[in-house]
């Protein structure tokens, strides 16, 4: 048996997925945490956890107790994008120079550009709003277009709408068909 919460009669019920959704677009953000970890393929990457620090959606993620995450690979072909990310953070924070101490990134400001992305969930295709890229606050002031939705590839979208079938491949000659 479950214990009845003390506020059960006074809280309003909610349906999963009915919460406030962040509109896509550019937002002034503050880095709340920064750490290094390996990607699923074992490549080193920087992980930034951010929250919106001004405007209508200030503290949007912190209020949900889950910060927005941005992953940036740091080696190989991605090294130039890692350096570009650091350059944009430095541009957004006068007198700041990144010294590879990840804790020094905490409380630095930047512009995170969010976009809608389709994905295949438990109940088929769905949409989430995620950070697409990070740029400088100066570029945000110059104006950044709201990005278009990232659609699922045709292959993924058709997979989400039909059940998978695993069986033996059968070769049929057109002459064998009755029609």
Fold topology:
Layout: E1 25-38, E2 44-52, H1 60-63, E3 68-73, H2 79-92, E4 109-121, E5 124-135, H3 137-142, H4 154-160
Antiparallel strand pairs: 1-2, 1-4, 2-3, 4-5
Can you put this structure into words, describing what you see?
The chain is of the alpha+beta class. The protein has one domain. It is built from four helices and five strands, in the order ββαβαββαα. It has helices spanning 60-63, 79-92, 137-142, 154-160; strands at 25-38, 44-52, 68-73, 109-121, 124-135. The protein has a five-stranded antiparallel β-sheet with strand order 3-2-1-4-5. Strand 4 (109-121) and strand 5 (124-135) form a beta hairpin. The longest helix has 14 residues, at 79-92. The protein is globular and about 55 Å long. Mean pLDDT is 85; it is low at 157-179.
Number of helical stretches of at least 4 residues: 4
Instruction: Give the averaged pLDDT, no decimals.
Output: 85
> What is the helix content?
10-25%
| Largest beta-sheet details | 5 strands, antiparallel
Poorly predicted runs are 157-179
What is the CA-atom radius of gyration, in angstroms? Answer: 23 Å
Main sheet strand line-up: 3-2-1-4-5
The 3D shape can be described as globular
Please, what is the oligomeric state?
single chain
How many structural domains? Answer: 1
Number of DSSP-assigned strands:
5
- Range of strand content: 25-35%
Run of helices and strands? EEHEHEEHH
Ends apart, CA distance between termini: 62 Å
- Kindly name the structural category: alpha+beta
